[in-house]
Amino acid sequence: QLALADKAMGSYRQALRLNPQFAPAWYNLGVLLREAGRTNEAIEATRRAAEAAPEMKEAWYNLGVLHGQAGQSDQEIAAYQRLLTIAPDFAPAWLNLGAAHGNAGRLAEAIIALERAVELAPRQPKALLALGSAYAASGQTVKAGEILQLLRPLSPQLADQLADLL
């Protein structure tokens, strides 16, 4: 498995020597580097994909994920915000943006993003849990309780997690 991934990385690097602006090769190289646990190299490859193809939403999404894994919240937020300029109705990006703001201690911004995620995907349990948790953390327990009622039939386990915060 590892040898196959190394061979694939070599093939992508060879393609990039021929065409340094070939975004799919940068993107796929970034995915392989991420899977190999080489986060900084994965960030660089994914950034190059996003630069070469600014409308490639997968690159911006993965760039946000990678920056989050590296603890780089400002870059994580910037990647999701950039993605949302080209895909404003992409609920997973709103969810991750809300989580990134929450992790950075920006609860007001987190709530705005998470409300949008829930608006776009009202039956998505993880989005509901994140929004309910943000409401609870900001002292908005009535709103958190309303989210709890929406979450309970969708995912009793996640509802229990939210209930523990109230």
From TrEMBL:
The keyword Ligase does not apply. Keywords: TPR repeat. InterPro entries: TPR-like_helical_dom_sf, TPR_rpt. TPR repeats lie at residues 23-56, 57-90, 91-124. The keyword Magnesium does not apply. Pfam families: TPR_17, TPR_19, TPR_8. PANTHER family: PTHR44998, UDP-N-ACETYLGLUCOSAMINE--PEPTIDE N-ACETYLGLUCOSAMINYLTRANSFERASE 110 KDA SUBUNIT. This is Tetratricopeptide repeat protein. It comes from Desulfurivibrio alkaliphilus.
